[in-house]
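User: Just a sanity check before I run the rest of the batch. Below are the structure tokens for the first item. I only need the designed sequence back.
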């Protein structure tokens, strides 16, 4: 059986194809910073992730598409706190921290910034793809495990966790680890996610 490979996403052909993608065009038309914003919007519309007044933590937020969606959905009384190792251009109403959230000192700063348990912790992080499926899946799940560990400590009881992963050998194991901490867990693939991509979003509601 042929093994599916991750294809590096920096070639001219990929850039040309992306510009003809209807979800990419929809994101640009609505002034979202990434196509991923459409994916999060679809997940929210289907599952009701965001509520007015929520405190949202966006891990690995650059370029900011997910933060934009969260900011829109939670209203003026809500807060979005975003963190990334790379510099992110400001977004009105979004508090941005710069640093590697997997480091304990950055997490300490993040806890000081949010000041209370969060309602939602979300992560759209992925490593730079190498083209080696096994390695890329492992790296993505490692990031997701770091996000899960943070979410368990940062979320209020009943809070929500959302993270992107790639389906692979340890994907079922990651689902079990999430299920140990939340009442409901499911893998979600929004329409805007390419059918040929191994990416899937793990949505967990009801932190115990």
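Assistant: Here's the designed sequence for the first item:
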């Amino acid at each position: 059986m042929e093994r599916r490979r991750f294809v590096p996403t920096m070639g001219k052909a990929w850039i040309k194809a992306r510009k003809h993608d209807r979800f990419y065009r929809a994101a640009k038309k609505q002034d979202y910073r990434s196509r991923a914003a459409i994916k999060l919007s679809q997940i929210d519309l289907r599952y009701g992730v965001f509520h007015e007044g929520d405190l949202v933590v966006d891990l690995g937020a650059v370029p900011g598409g997910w933060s934009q969606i969260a900011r829109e959905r939670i209203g003026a009384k809500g807060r979005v706190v975003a963190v990334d190792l790379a510099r992110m251009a400001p977004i009105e109403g979004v508090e941005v921290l710069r640093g590697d959230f997997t480091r304990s000192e950055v997490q300490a700063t993040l806890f000081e910034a949010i000041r209370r348990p969060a309602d939602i912790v979300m992560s759209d992080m992925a490593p730079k793809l190498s083209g080696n499926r096994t390695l890329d899946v492992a790296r993505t799940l490692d990031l997701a495990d770091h996000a899960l560990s943070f979410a368990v400590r940062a979320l209020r009881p009943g809070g929500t966790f959302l993270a992107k992963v790639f389906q692979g050998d340890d994907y079922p194991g990651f689902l079990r680890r999430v299920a140990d901490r939340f009442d409901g867990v499911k893998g979600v693939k929004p329409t805007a996610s390419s059918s040929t991509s191994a990416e899937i979003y793990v949505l967990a509601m009801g932190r115990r």
